[in-house]
Amino acid sequence: MITDAVFRCYDKAEHYFSRSFERPAITFRRSGKNAGTAFLQQNRLNFHPILYKENSEVFIREVVPHEVSHLLVWILFGRVQPHGKEWQSVMRGVFDCSPSATHQFDVKRVSRSFSYKCDCDTYALSTRRHNNILKGAQYKCKKCSALLRAA
Known about the structure:
This is SprT-like domain-containing protein. By secondary structure, the chain is of the alpha+beta class.
């Protein structure tokens, strides 16, 4: 379904710009809270499979054109602001979509947290902070100044 939606977007863009575009590679990997990601220099789109499954209609209608627009803007204009005037123009003109930079999906299921404690409390740290701790970073409690440690 997503692949078909991507190809339909490319068909629209080819009609709009009167030129052809190489179709991108499409992957489905979890990517934190990102619904989709455009890898410009690789001509690749990645979509979050769980967020797609839970929000398929909105995903097809908003996320797919959003990410396709990033690749098209890269091809047409080169390095520009990610959600700048060129991207907004493609979103509006080609896909008749509102150029929103963020999604409104419920990310509770895909947001993993890790439990850490100090001398006075327990905290839920993000995956990023947890990974930083595994690499040697240290975080202190703002209340008691003790180092956070795995709970």
